[in-house]
Write a structure and sequence with these properties.
single chain; alpha+beta; DNA polymerase, domain 1; three-stranded antiparallel sheet
Length: about 260
């Protein structure tokens, strides 16, 4: 004999539906009306009868920001661009969309997010944000027991935007930037002159200009990758996943002229 769902009144505007079936975890959910509770119970029982039932409990009690936090903790650090990805996710976590329960998120929510962000950010930035949202939800669906019929972000069309650039700094612009990044010592009164307070910023910018290395590639560079005699820097993992060596890298020396400080 198949046990039927139990519907009971738990107070004003609180109707609890409970389903118990052998071999399945107990399902329980509260609604504002008896009819809603009965409709939900019929749907769950139908899915159990057809063998397609999956528990939605985690999706219905987990906030989106909790998934983002877990992704930042467990998944993002494994990626090559972890630093940038984590910073971007931390910013996305502050959006009101992140406070929503995962099961309530729809493609319309992310479409509205896209349209709002396009008013203040470029298309490629919004595309990257949507891609991160999609990755977080996809990992949660596949590995964390967050059962959703589909990934709502996958259905959202991405903004088209072409930001290809081929322009380089002209010599005057380059010198202006480097002058602005010149290291200045602290004054006697403890204040700084208008310039850089960090001795590494100027050499990093010089290296980027001379080699066209990306920020992530520079951050991942280690002394074992550098050959000072040949003036080369070996990049073991570039954006296009190819192995490359940047020959004749700029001979950039940090403050003090110590040859061991050449980047």
């Amino acid at each position: 004999m198949v046990e039927m769902a139990t519907i009971r009144n738990r107070g004003e505007y609180q109707w609890e539906a409970q389903i118990r079936r052998k071999g399945y975890p107990a399902q329980r959910k509260t609604f504002e009306s008896k009819s809603d509770a009965q409709a939900w119970a019929r749907m769950i029982e139908s899915e159990i009868d057809r063998g397609i039932f999956v528990s939605r409990v985690e999706a219905e009690r987990t906030a989106f920001y909790q998934l983002i936090d877990r992704y930042i903790s467990e998944i993002a650090p494994k990626h090559k661009g972890a630093y940038s990805e984590i910073k971007r996710l931390e910013a996305l976590k502050r959006h009101p969309l992140a406070t929503r329960i995962v099961a309530t998120l729809t493609s319309s929510d992310f479409a509205r997010y896209r349209d709002e962000r396009l008013k203040i950010r470029k298309g490629n930035t919004v595309k990257r944000e949507l891609a991160l949202f999609q990755c977080v939800i996809e990992v949660a669906r596949r590995e964390w027991g967050i059962h959703l019929a589909e990934n709502p972000v996958r259905m959202v069309s991405r903004p088209s935007y072409n930001d290809e650039r081929s322009r380089r700094l002209d010599p005057i612009e380059e010198q202006y930037i480097l002058n602005a990044l010149e290291l200045r010592e602290r004054r006697a009164d403890g204040t700084y002159a208008d310039a850089s307070h960090n001795p590494w910023i100027r050499p990093i910018v010089q290296l980027a200009i001379e080699t066209a290395m990306r920020r992530g590639e520079i951050f991942e560079l280690r002394w074992k990758h550098v050959n000072l005699d040949r003036r080369t820097a070996h990049l073991s993992a570039t954006k296009n996943a190819l192995f490359s060596t940047l020959a004749n890298a700029a001979n950039v020396t940090c403050k003090g002229g110590n040859p061991k400080k050449v980047i």
